[in-house]
Design brief:
Layout (H helix, E strand, L loop, with lengths): L1 E12 L13 E12 L2 E6 L8 E4 L4 E4 L1 E6 L12 H10 L2 E6 L10 H14 L3 E2 L2 E2 L13 H7 L3 E3 L8 H13 L4 E3 L4 H4 L4 E2 L2 H6 L3 E2 L1 H18 L3 E3 L5 H13 L3 E5 L1 H5 L21 H12 L5 E2 L8 H4 L16 H10 L6 H8 L1 H7 L14 E11 L18 E11 L2 E5 L2 E2 L2
Parallel strand pairs: 1-4, 1-5, 6-7, 7-8, 9-10, 10-11, 11-14, 12-13, 14-15, 15-16
Antiparallel strand pairs: 1-2, 2-3, 5-17, 17-18, 18-19, 19-20
Helix pairs in contact: 4-7, 7-8, 8-10
Amino acid sequence: MKILIKGGRVVNPQAPASRLEPKSAEPALDAIMDVLIEDSTIIKIGKNISDANARRVDADGMVVAPGFIDMHTHLREPGREDEETIESGSRSGVKGGYCALAPMANTEPVADNVEVINFLNAQAEKYAWTHIYPVGSVTRGLKGETITEIGEFKEAGVVALSDDGRPVTNSRIFMLALQYAGMFNLPVISHCEDVHLTEGGCMNEGLNSTILGLPGMPAAAEEVMVARDIALARWTGGRVHVAHVSCANTVELVRRAKFEGVNVTAETAPHYFSLTDDAVKTYDTNAKMNPPLRTAEDVEAVRQGLRDGTIDAIATDHAPHTHVEKQVAFIEAPFGVIGLETCLPLVITKLVDEGVLTLPEAIAKLTLGPARILGLSMGKIETGARADITVFDPASEYKIDVNTFECKCRNSPFNGWRLKGKAVHVIVAGQPRLLDGRLVG
């Protein structure tokens, strides 16, 4: 099959010179071009390409980017298929512009052995609409006690390790995990939370939690674990990746560590640069997440961290929960929000349009950044590269309606928001998955 993408603004981010590079990626290519695909490969990029045998995809007025990669997704399979499956989650990912998803290991059973990883790979082979790159757990059963068989994970295709949803509280276990993961060149993704400080909490600890009478989760609970993880990464030379950065002091800790040459990377999620804990004032459980929404000062620090390159990637932390689970008192509701179909419009509206990031920098956070952290040969549009491509309209403005989403759940705090930016065409390994905004099988 040949596909010819005509007349789009082709943006191909370029990697920074090193992890110490303070600025986000500048584009290696940013020009109105055509892209010709044959089978699964990009075979030509240039102006005025013609091929009578190719299927034409019109990209006039749109941006042609490397396929987005979500390095932090919860697909709930196996165990909670009522919330999400590999099929439904990857369909949702395609609608959001994603060509690859990295599902976290906190499934039921936990992805803590190669049999579960092989099951995920088999399900992905049958049902996934995107590439699926599993994340294996750091410890057996997410209990923080016994490290998993990392070598077997690597052979099975695991791209990172994480007990996400829980921290690895035992510092010696985390230190050993960094050492063993380093032997296989795998990053350890850390859910940074001192659970002794957050026990019983359900929102950010501060003025709003006092007014609302809800138990708080202090920012210090995140900061102390980030400081510990950086210290252990400095000591071992292992690769630590800080998940879902939410507060100002975390940004500063990562910034300093990078300056010192510590092997640390970081991600944040759209709700942490778009919302404050004011969103909890209505007791809307769709605004309950972990880490919790913080203050305006924290939001500004996260945006600055994205701007100066301290935060390498934007992930969704897509965490579906059923309506029944969320329709309870705020303190009793589960943590988490969906995000695959709202990430791009929030990036365009809250970061690009507000001047925090240039469009190429924003694309790098969705593509090249996660690709480099996970060791994937993705995140670029080049001749000879695999044809994973997202074409989106940055000017398309519309009202978010969660009832139109492909994912199984509706727990989003952004329902009803007017945002800009929409995926129009998505091509995964040369196969059209989204054309003119419609899923194609």
